[in-house]
Amino acid sequence: MRKKGFIVSFIAVLILLSACNQETTTKIKLAEVTRSIFYAPQYVALEKGFFEEEGLEVDLQTTWGGDTTMTALLSDGADIALVGSETSMYVYAQDSKDYAINFAQLTQTDGTFLVAKEADEDFSWEDIKDSTFLGQRVGGMPQMVGEYVLKENGIDPHGDLNLEQNIDFANIAGAFASGDYDYVQLFEPTASVFEAEGQGHIVASFGEESGVVPYTVFMTKQSFMEEEDDAIEAFTRAIYKAQQWVDEHSAEEIADVVAPYFEETDIEMLASSIDRYKSQGSFATDPNLDEKEWNNLQEIMEKSGELPENVPYEDLVNTDYAERVMSE
C-alpha cells in the first residue's frame, strides 16, 4: 500500500509541475511583414528553441505588407510585429494614444537588390535612365531606400525613369517576371532564384549603397509593453541568442536550420542568399537600435518625401531590454 501511495503522490507532483510550467508559459502572437530569408535570425530563434527557453510560446503569422502588419498590431491581432520602423512613425504622426514602440532591431541594412531583366556585367547607375522600373509600395522602406540610393547616384526616380508602383508587395516578383519591366527591387531568396532561372540578373545592392538603418524592427504597443514587461525582455533575450548564433555560424549551417520556412527553395540557394546578407552586414548582431541609425532613417524618409514629422528617438525607441540582455 505504501508503494502504491508513493506512486500516486509522484504522479500528482508531476501533474502539479506540468501545470506550473503551463502557467509560466506566455503566448505571443508575432506578425512578420513578409516571409524572407532576410529574417533568418527570427527563424533560428524559433527552430533552435530560444523562445521556449525563455518561457514563450510564439505563434508566427505572415501579414504581407507594412499596412496590414501594423493594423494587426494596433487591433490586437498581434502582440509583437516585425516590420519597418517607419510604420511606427506614421502611427505616431496620427496622434495615436497607444502607439508602437521599437524595442529590438533585427536587420540593419536594406535587404533588396537591383535586378535587371537583361545581364549587365558592367552595370552603372546611369544605365537605368529612361528604363521601366517596377518600384515598391509608396511609403515603405524598400521604396524609400530605393529612391534615396537613386538620388545619391544622380538619378531622379520620377523624372529619369518610367517608375511604376501600382503592384502589391506580394505580387511584385511575379509582375516583373511576366511584365515588360527593365528593373525591379527584390529581396532574397527571390533575387537569387530569378538569377538562377534566367528571369533576372542581380546588378547592385541597395543595402550596400544606403548604409546602416533600423530596417526591420520588433515593435509592440505601449500598453502591451507595460502589461508584459517580462515577456518583452524574454523575447528580446531569445532574439539576441539567435543573432549571436547566426553571427557565429556559417551560411550553410543557418540554411539547414531555417529551411522549413522555405520549403520551395533549394537549400544551396538559401545558403547563397544568407551568405549575401551576412557579407554586407544585413543581420544585426545585437538588438540595440542606436540613435545614429534612427537619424539616418529619418534622413532617408525626408529625402523621399515620406517623413510625416521629425520623431524624437526617445519617443519611439526603447533600448532598455536590449541593454539588459546584452549586459548579462
Describe the 3D structure:
This protein has helices at about 1-25, 40-45, 50-55, 65-75, 85-95, 140-150, 170-180, 190-195, 205-210, 220-225, 230-250, 250-260, 265-280, 290-305, 315, 320-325; strands spanning about 25-30, 55-60, 80-85, 100-105, 110-115, 130-135, 160-165, 185, 200-205, 215-220. Helix 2 packs across helix 11, helix 2 packs across helix 12 (about 250-260) and helix 11 crosses helix 16 (about 320-325). The protein is globular, with a radius of gyration of 22 Å. Helix 6 links the parallel strand 6 (about 130-135) and strand 7 (about 160-165). The chain is α/β, with parallel strands linked by helices and about 325 residues long. It contains 16 helices and 10 strands.
